[in-house]
Amino acid sequence: MRSWRYSRWDGTQEAFSLDAEGALDALSDWMMEGLDLASALEWMRRSGFELAGLDMRVMGLDELEKELRSEIRSLEQRYRMDEATADLRRRLERILDREEAAQRARHGYESSRMNEFKDRRHQPEGRLSDAIERFRDWSFEDAEAGAGFAELLGELDRLRALERFLAERGSRFRGREPADYDTAQQVRERMEALERLARDLASGNLEPIDPEQLAELLSENALRSLVILRRLEPELRRAGMLRDGSGGPELTPRAIRRIGAQALATVYGALRKGRPGAHDTVRVGVGLPRPDETRPWQFGDAFDVDVVRSLLNAVKRGVAGPASPPQQPDRLEYRPAPAERARAASAASEVNRRATAQQPILWNLEDLEVREMDYRTQATTVLALDMSWSMSWAGRFPAAKRVALALDHLIRTRYPRDHFFVVGFSTRARELQIQELPEAVWDMGEPFTNLQEALMLAERLIARHPSPSAQVLVITDGQPTAYFRGRELRVEWPMGFGGVSPHAAAETLKQVRRITRRGVTINTFMLDASPELVGFVEQMTRINKGRALYTSPGRLGSYVMVDYLARRRTLRG
Whose CA is closest to 432, among 410, 406, 401? Predict the structure, then answer.
């Protein structure tokens, strides 16, 4: 017969498994805020996080420490300790009373033995442990008193610990419930364990913590949270999300793909809510068949006949009777050339010949169906991402970084033939590799904006990967304030309040003209509506004929995603 035994979960049992992907999603939220991997992991441990699949929020170390401190305060507010050692002192007095009676009966009142006993007993009042220590080497005449004193000696170390505890913090206990000796010892041991655990949590030292002790000190939610925090990094490693790099732990390619997918889901979720439409279509590129969609053949179509559907049309027409003679066309009907009709008729005859097994099926041109085609082209996109210090305000940089990751994932999965690059710029511009994106952070201490160099780098990337649909997406919150003149880097503060940086703006617009001559479209997404930025972007737009949009960080993803999808040259012919 099978039986089951249940016990309270203490953190040692595998009551649940940590969802590594959910933990990575929570980690990526911190990294979107501009934290590197190590800092994001530390913030997760400190602040806690939501974990999919659990009906709880994982408490951070700071919250756990706060719970421990709260438990300590509740003990201080519950008990008072002024009588904590009174019971033990009364026990000692009873033991000494018995021994004094035994000494008096055996040695009389004035013996040296009796005098020594009285000297030891009646020394000035002090700590109880000192009174017990004075009789450590005393040979008791009363056997029962000796046995009782031996018990007190066994308790002496714990008594001293309690006395030290009361000397340090006895005044903090202001509750109404008096604590006897045993209760006081339990309170001391619990408070010391709580404080020891709080110190470990404060230092982030989780390994030495005993799960069985945790079960006695923490609530179940806190206990589960602590176990998850202990397993967080090892579980991410086991799931292939983290690995050791030259500078410590680093994200694996699998983790980077997951972060990109989550960023895309976030951005695309907002895109669906808006239901944007009006995608541009231009007939350029390579035609790819859509095998499930066909239409009647028309003059001028590529002769990619769907034999099965054409044959069915012929069979259906044969059952229904011969096709009606074509109506006389009016003057606007374009008649196929004789050569074209002859070629189509020849193809139909060949199909008839091959398809005829027992009974001939006669085909007409009206039976022919051709496969629908998708016309696609390769696109090259450069995302120019402002990384100057001002992007750290109002959630601008996290929104921009999430867009970069989302676009990268979208293009890699849906448009793998496209080229996509990210160029970060502040005082200088540089290309950001995909593995750098999750940990990218704004350039602290770099207040200048070098859009000119960002466009130069974008132009070089597009020149190395040319396409008929090249574009630059600029995400910025400020006008240019840094530029190159020749090989010399210059910076230029705006001239007065609300002013512009005239030389930086002029040199940047020269680069806009150069890249425009290559046929590259520049679409700018402004995260600030300052007049100087709006004025500069309007000049860019007049030169390049691209678009300029002002948006908040929360809506940035939708605008950029709509813009990229609109630029895709996809049509159905």
Answer: 401
Q: Are residue 386 and residue 240 in the same domain, yes or no?
A: no
Cβ neighbours of residue 203 closer than 8 Å, sequence gap 6 or more: none
* Residue 452 near residue 483, CB atoms below 8 Å: yes
Residue 241 to residues 58, 251, 259, 403, Cα–Cα distance (Å): 20, 6, 10, 21
In a domain, 402, yes or no: yes
User: Cα(526)–Cα(473) distance, rounded to whole angstroms?
Assistant: 11
At 14 the pLDDT is 46
Q: Measure CA 61 to chain center.
A: 18
Alpha-carbon 526 to chain mean position = 25
Q: How many domains is the chain built from?
A: 4
pLDDT digits (tens, 9 = 90+) for 419-469: 889 999 999 999 998 888 888 888 888 889 999 999 999 999 999 998 878
What gap in Å lies between CA 525 and CA 561, rounded to an integer?
A: 12
- The residue among 131, 146, 172 that closes a domain is 172
The H helix count followed by the E strand count for the chain is 19, 17
Domain that holds residue 369: 290-323+336-373
- Give the largest Cα separation in the chain, rounded: 151
- pLDDT tens, 377-395? 678 889 999 999 888 878 8
Distance CA 484, CA 508 (A): 9
Domain final residue, candidates 141, 172, 203: 172
Question: Percent helix, strand, coil in the chain (nearest 5)?
Answer: 55, 15, 35
Listed in sequence order, the residues at least 6 apart from 217 whose beta carbon sits closer than 8 Å to its beta carbon are 68, 71, 190, 193, 194, 197
- Of 307, 406, 322, nearest in space to 364 by CA: 322
Which stretches of the chain drop beneath a pLDDT of 50? 1-2, 4-16, 272-290, 321, 323-336, 569-573
Query: Residue 498: what pLDDT?
Result: 55
Q: How far apart are CA 561 and CA 411, in angstroms?
A: 11
In a domain, 14, yes or no: no
Rounded to two decimals, the pTM is: 0.57
436 part of a folded domain: yes
Burial of 356 (0-12, 13-18, 19+ CB in 10 A): exposed
Q: Residue 353's pLDDT is what?
A: 57
Mark whether 384 and 431 lie in a shared domain.
Answer: yes
Both tokens assigned to 458: 């974008």
Residue 488, SS3 per DSSP? strand
